[in-house]
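Changelog excerpt

This revision adds worked examples to the README so contributors can see how folded entries look when concatenated. The first example is reproduced verbatim below.
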Amino acid sequence: MDQKKYTISLFGEFVDKSLEDEFLAESLDASKKITAYMALVFGAILGLFVVESYITEGGTALFAGITPLRLVFILVSILVFLTARKTTKHKHLVYIVSFYQVMMGIVYLLTLKHFDSLTFFSILGLMVITLAMYLVPNKIAISQIISIVFSVLFFIYPSHKLVDIQTYEFYRVVAYQTILLVYCNIIYCWAETTKRKTFIANRKLLDLSSKDPLTGIYNRKMFDDAMDQWIGFSKRSGHPLSLILFDIDYFKGVNDNFGHMVGDRVLKDVAAIVKQSIRNTDIFARWGGDEFAILLPNTDLEKAEKLAERLKGCIANYCPPESPNKITCSFGVAQYEQNDTKQSLLRRVDDLLLEAKTGGRDKVVS
């Protein structure tokens, strides 16, 4: 486990961009649900304000001025509710949430513009809107910028309409808003950090259950599950699927002559060589003992055979530091056929591996 890769910044995000993207992709469903339903709640709350304003101010110029703004925000809230749920990429959700946060601030500031004078309820509204901005999931830096700009704009323009407020009270309000912003950022960063720590813990558990502890590649159970999935996919789609099964020639002699520690080192090094030579989409696992398996999605027999030949050459060039013996491997290669089951495909490739071993070893049979 590369601890540096799992470093979390002060903003509650992974320093490693690829890992951060992976986390965001995994948490997308939860984030878009929160965004959608919070937008629905905010729109409903503003709808209540419209009703209250109609009852108390209906027919006045003030009502005519602020109601269209509130109705626009309600409409935007409905659109956010509908679009957020259908979002398939996290960066698109960031655009939606950022737009929505900006709309919160703009609508509130434009609403205050229609009032001749403001009371402490306007300050309370400033704080509530600030809190609302942090209730929808967004990148912390964007939320910070939007909330700070919103606060500054409030104190630059509408605040001069505040009545019955002394200068020292005004500065106290500024201090309270600053404290609120600091509090929101600390809580938000802490929550995001906690989510990512949980993500790391779940990954470690997954690694323990799906990885071979010696070589760090997948174990047999994980490979079996992947085979079931990819055979089902190939059966439905007709896309090619190939399987390579190989083992280390005369591996027992390495253990007997040089000890199991040297044997373990050979297993790890061979696994590392193969891992560097295959695609990220290929499923590479320790099948058992000195035997390994590689499942190759969207790969026909010809390409799989070329890969096996290349792997055979790479391994043959490997010289174990503790052992004078040259390390070679024998390979069996087969392609999934339409009437194959998992068992029949494994049996066929196992027979090909046996043929490679009985035919002199250090060869590929397909």
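The second example, added in the same revision:
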Amino acid sequence: MASVKRKFEIKYEQDAGFKYIELEANGVYSQIPDKITQLMQLTAEQNLFPQMKGPIFAMFYNDPREAETEDEYNWAVGYPCTENAEVKAPLKQKERGEALVAKITVYGPYEELAAQYEKIEEKIIADSYKVLRFSLEMYLDDSRQVKPENTRTVLWIDIKK
């Protein structure tokens, strides 16, 4: 069944930033589901669920269009956390600083997200902003519980005027 094509809406806003817990990764993005599973296992082992303060996300540290090979893709999976979360390796606690962001809710299977980026980037540029990087995908739905065509992902893209 083909996913329902919905128009995306971009919201431009100054984000205050947040603390988060992450599990770093390199390589192909098809590893994201397995890395999320690993993240949740480590979260349980370290009793960090009470520290979890938001949905799971994938954060991208470089632009895959600038990498020569998929091995150069640098990214992580994580979630926002409380100020006082104490983590042990391989998990890390980090802080995302304040940033001007474009936030876009995209509907449909996770596998179709990459195809949306070009259209979104064109719209951001048409709105007189410069794209700094595609920084994170925040997953609002569990694809095991929601039909793929109904899953929602909020893309956070760092921008400047």
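Reviewer comment on example two: The chain has a mean pLDDT of 91. DSSP finds two helices and eight strands in the chain.
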